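Quick sanity check, Transposase IS3/IS911 family protein:
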Amino acid sequence: MKEKTSNQYSTEIRERAIRMVREHQGEYPSEWAAIQSISAKFGCTAETLRRWLRQTQKTNEIRQDSASSSDSERIKALEREVRELRQANEILRKASAYFAQAELDRPFKR
C-alpha cells in the first residue's frame, strides 16, 4: 500500500509550524502536546506536523555529520601542515646555528 503524499502545505507554512513547536515546546507538558495544539492552528494533523519535525531533525543531523566530516578533514590537513612547518623551522634553525658557528670559526681579516 503506497503512502499518500500530498503537498497541500507550502514550505513556509511547514517551516513556521516547526519553528512554533520548537519555540513554544516549553509551554506544554510534552512535545506531543505542543504538536497537537500547534497543528490545530495550522489545520494539519498532529501526525503530519510530527513527521515534518522528525524529517527536519534528520536533515539537520545529516548536515551536521557532513559538516563535521569536512571539518575533521580540514583539521587533519591543517595538523599535517603544522607538522611540516615545524620540521622546516627546525631545519632552518639548525642551518642558521651551523652557519653562525662557521662565521665565528673563520679567521679574522685585517
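Posting the structure with no commentary besides this: The chain has one domain: 11-105.
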